[in-house]
Every structure is written in structure tokens, then in C-alpha cells.
Amino acid sequence: MPLLLGSVADDFTGATDLASTLVKAGMRTVQLLGVPRRDLPVPDSDAIVIALKSRSNAADEAVMMSLAALDWLQKNGAKQYYFKYCSTFDSTDKGNIGPVADAMLDALGARITVFNPAFPTNKRTVFKGHLFVGDELLSDSGMRHHPLNPMTDSSLVRVLERQSKYKVGLVQYDTIVRGADAVRQKLAELSEQGYRHIILDAITDEHLMTLGAACADLALITGGSGMAMGLPANFVRSGELEAGVTQSLPKVEGASAVLSGSCSVATQEQVAHMQKSHDVFQLDPMAIAKGRDVAREAVEWARPKLGDKPVLIYSTAATEQVGAVQSELGRENSGALIEETMGKIARELVAGGVRRLVIAGGETSGAVVSALGVEGLYIGQEIDPGVPWTFSIGQPTLALALKSGNFGTGDFFTKAFGKL
Ligand code: ADP
Questions:
Q1: Which atom of ligand 1 is nearest to the CA of 367?
Q2: Exposed end of the chain (fewer CB within 10 Å): N or C?
Q3: Which of 3.40.50.10840, 3.40.50.720, 3.10.450.50, 3.40.50.1220 would CATH assign to domain 5-237?
Q4: Which CATH architecture describes the domain 255-419?
């Protein structure tokens, strides 16, 4: 089967979110980690999402990485391309959404592209070009205090104009409710008038389905994960995608473990829940900093316990404890020390027969998959919204659930293995 949709995502968990959306809408999807090496065999799938870590890089770096990813997808013959960013349009006046979209549009030789970060299920909507988070304008929401990219303007037209060399237009709600043909016609008019970037309103999933249908013929689409919802249906309509075909996923046998480096509130609850009924080992960041081989201690503790019933190794701690560690060791340094330790533990556990791993924390997940040398993941069924089981490409096959901080119910760590 030819590759239908080739996507470039600006961060790791965002890529998984997009991949999971595509799987739910009927596309067999693979997520690749970083710009793939030239000779990586193309995994058999309908969609590929390349996960970059480019959201907060300098704009020219983000452009370079995105173009390299796009080039790989083009060489492998994707039919349509997608650029995925955050549903809160995380960016600054310097980029990176505008510069990356400009560059991808140019590289594809396309005339226009569209922008839509809406994710109604998570209460991100776009009305008259303004992005809302829940009932608040983006600029009134907590995002105005974001440490890396404070969002102080809710008008996506203005935000994008400041970042892009192209004219930015808008297709509003009143056109979208008139259906895909009306949207298509409006896009054609705006294109005639010289607009090359077009913001799209969307308040409901139904609007997103309309927009998906209207964008069937665009070479490049940009958005959050929601905007991709309506795309698989286009390929079914064109006869390129068979409806109802799901990815055949491997059955993974082997011992189970949970590694948790997230300190988010939801993760703290999940750790507390698992502690009641499972063997757990807590990592002490200060001991790691003093040079003790904490990774080895954890693995030696775990080894005799490994089996079907998962063990939990965690550094998860309450805010005050994290604050104390950070003021002693520095925020970045403590984070990096723990991530490195988690990576070592993961490698040793896999060497010792662990094949089914739940990992909590976005950064922690990134550190662990890179320590394990994982190049790509087949995306399976969701455990909780936004967190699917995934299966590593290459040997040995690992089942990995990569959970970003605040996702998942209280019993996530134990429930996940029941869904394999
Ligand atoms: P989340 O998805 O919840 O943000 P991340 O893994 O992305 O989780 O980030 C958590 C960060 O906190 C990581 O860099 C991790 O190494 C660090 N960390 C984990 N436990 C502790 C701790 N006890 N003290 C200080 N930092 C910690």
C-alpha cells in the first residue's frame, strides 16, 4: 500500500496524539522518532508521523529539521502532508509555526495551506479566528504565563502574520456550517486574492470533519491533532484507503514494568494507587547526584520480581520535594540526572526480559525511548484518551505506553496491562 499521509510533528507526545487520532479514524499509523535515517525501511502503514523536538528550538533549526523530515516523507512518496503543532498554537513572534509552514509550503511548491489548532474534546476552539481555551480567550488563559512561549494574543491571524512572510486570511464559522463545498470555494477565492496561509474556525468535531473534507486536495495541511480527524475519510472516498482495516499488531510476551519520572498531579495519584497492591522502588535524586549507582540498585531490586505482575520504579514526588531537589541541584541538572537514570534502568530491564513498559512523563518517555534506541512505533489502541499502546519497530518488539504527565485515570498503571 502506498503511503497516504506524511506528517511532521513539533513534539513527541503531540506526535502520538496525532497518530492516535489517525488510528481511530481508520489509518494504520507509524510514529518515527526524529528525522529517520535515509535507509530506514519504510514501515507498512497508511500514515507516518515523524516526531521532532522542534517546538522551542531557534526558528532556523526548526525549519531545517522539518524540511529534512518532509524530504524523507517525499522520498517515500506520501500523497499529502501535515504539520502538527500544539492545540494552544505554542509559538512566539519568531516562530516556529509560521517559518516552518512557510518553508514546507515552498518545498512542496503549493499555493495555500490552512491552520487549525482546534481540539473541541479538550475545549480548544477557534471562533472568528480567535483561539479559546475552555471559556477564555487564549490570551486570558494560563497560556499567557507559559515559560517558553507566552500566548498574549488570541487572534491567530495576527499571531501568524507576525511569524510568516505570507498574507494570512480567515475562513469563518458561517462559511464552515454551509459545508465542505462552501469552504472549498472560499479557499479558492482567498487564494486568488493572494492569501497563502488561511486560518479556519472550528468549534465542534463536525466542523473539523467538514474542514477535513474541504482540504482533500491541499498538498499541505497544518493543525493540532483535531484537524486530522476528517482526513482519513478523504482517502476512503478516493478509493486509496480501505475502510475498517486495522494494523495487525504483535502479541508481546514478557515481563512488565512501570517507570515514572513525571511529577504531575495525575501521575502522583497513579503512583499512590499502584503502591497499594504492587512492589515499588523509589529513586532518590540526591543519591544519584552523590554518585551512587541508583540505576543498578533499582534493577537488582526488580530482577527477582519480574514477571506478569508489573513492578513500579519511580522518581515521582510532590511539588515541595521536587522544589527542594531543584534548588539543591538545579532544575535542568536534576531533570537530566533522573532521565539518564531512567534510561539506564529501562535498558537493563529490557536486557533482563521486560517487554511491556508503561512510562510516565513526556521528557521521561523521550529519554527512555532514546536510551532503548527505538526508531519507530506502531500505534495501537488507546488506553485512555491521548495514550495508546505502541509497539516498537525492530527487535525485540516492546509494548510501550508513553503517558504524558496529566493524562490517564488513577488506576492507569495497572489498567494499561489489562488492555494489551
Ligand atoms: P510530565 O509529562 O509530567 O511533565 P516529564 O517527564 O516531562 O513529566 O518531566 C518531569 C521532569 O521532572 C523530568 O525531567 C524528570 O527527570 C524530573 N523529575 C522527576 N522526578 C523528580 C524529582 N523527584 N525531583 C526533581 N525532578 C524530578
A1: 6
A2: N
A3: 3.40.50.10840
A4: 3-Layer(aba) Sandwich (3.40)
